[in-house]
């Protein structure tokens, strides 16, 4: 073999060796990636009756909310159905609604695990007649959007008296708005969120939620979303040993667990009974990680959406918090 052929052969062998090493590295990376996916899948299989997710964006198209949820490893999600800055919103595009329903169907999302969130502009308990009427109309619009999207639940903050009407009068107005919206729309369940008891807001105490439910004519179309931060800030001690069980027992006695349709999983920056709506990342606040461990292992919270609304921080955003919560599941 001549010198030139020897050099060429040596070069070819070096290239083949280098290619083999690169393939091994790629193969190793792929193996690591597969292993990571398997571990995450194992965690989610371990929590197979828990539907943990987060509030996702509808930027770029409402159907993209599904992709956002999948990307973070969620099995449920919450979303807004329109702008939060205006009472008047353009109608929901029918093509967008069809794409949303198709995305949900193709990716196995049951409507019962999707929780649209109401506009913060709404105050169905407002003593100001113009605000009450606009809130009532917006509630009708929101339920109509749910129907068009094939969704069955709609979550809202009940409202506030603004200090100028009694609690009873405020409860009456909230129920009036819900009854009106139910007359205008079919099937969708209006889900009341418990509040932290700040100012004149209604719903900080379970008895106030029950007071609204008692005034709703079709009680098959009303439910509750239990926000952990709000409950803690209102004085329900989820952080105590056995606190999750105790709070759920009290909820069952006052409201009834049959009305519990969802949970917002938020730790609290504020202390017990502070009446401040300050969400913190899971396990990083005053409620603490043990309470969330108890939540994801509580059978009474099976098969309902468990939604994160936490602020997030570098390295501990929604995907990491969802992964953590699934890792806490015992089976």
TrEMBL record:
The keyword Protease does not apply. Transmembrane segments: none annotated. Keywords: DNA damage, DNA repair, Hydrolase, Metal-binding, Zinc. GO terms for molecular function: DNA binding; DNA-(apurinic or apyrimidinic site) endonuclease activity; phosphoric diester hydrolase activity; zinc ion binding. GO terms for cellular component: mitochondrion; nucleus. Its cofactor is Zn(2+). The keyword Signal does not apply. GO terms for biological process: base-excision repair. CDD domains: AP2Ec. This is Xylose isomerase-like TIM barrel domain-containing protein. Residues 67-326 form the Xylose isomerase-like TIM barrel domain.
């Amino acid at each position: 073999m001549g010198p030139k052929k020897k050099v060429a052969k040596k070069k070819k062998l070096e290239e083949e060796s280098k290619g083999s090493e690169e393939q091994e590295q790629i193969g190793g990376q792929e193996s690591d990636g597969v292993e990571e996916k398997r571990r995450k899948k194992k965690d989610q299989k371990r929590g197979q009756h828990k539907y943990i997710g987060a509030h996702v964006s509808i930027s770029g198209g409402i159907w993209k909310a599904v992709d956002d949820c999948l990307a973070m490893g969620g099995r449920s999600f919450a979303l807004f159905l329109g702008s939060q800055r205006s009472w008047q919103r353009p109608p929901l595009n029918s093509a967008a609604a069809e794409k949303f329903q198709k995305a949900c169907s193709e990716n196995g999302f049951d409507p019962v695990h999707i929780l649209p969130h109401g506009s913060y502009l709404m105050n169905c308990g407002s003593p100001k007649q113009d605000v009450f009427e606009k809130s009532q109309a917006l509630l009708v619009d929101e339920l109509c959007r749910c129907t068009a999207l094939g969704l069955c639940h709609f979550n809202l903050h009940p409202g506030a008296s603004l200090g100028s009407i009694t609690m009873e009068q405020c409860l009456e107005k909230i129920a009036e708005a819900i009854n009106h919206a139910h007359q205008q729309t079919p099937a969708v369940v209006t889900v009341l969120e418990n509040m932290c008891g700040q100012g004149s807001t209604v719903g900080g105490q379970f008895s106030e939620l029950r007071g609204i439910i008692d005034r709703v004519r079709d009680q098959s179309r009303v439910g509750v979303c239990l926000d952990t931060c709000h409950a803690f800030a209102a004085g329900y001690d989820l952080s105590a040993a056995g606190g999750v069980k105790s709070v759920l027992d009290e909820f069952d006695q006052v409201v009834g667990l049959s009305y519990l349709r969802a949970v917002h999983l938020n730790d609290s920056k504020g202390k017990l009974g502070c009446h401040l709506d300050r969400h913190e990342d899971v396990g990083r606040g005053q409620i603490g990680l043990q309470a969330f461990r108890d939540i994801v292992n509580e059978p009474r919270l099976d098969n309902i959406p468990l939604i994160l609304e936490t602020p997030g921080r570098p390295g501990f955003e929604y995907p990491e918090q969802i992964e953590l919560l699934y890792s806490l599941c015992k089976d």
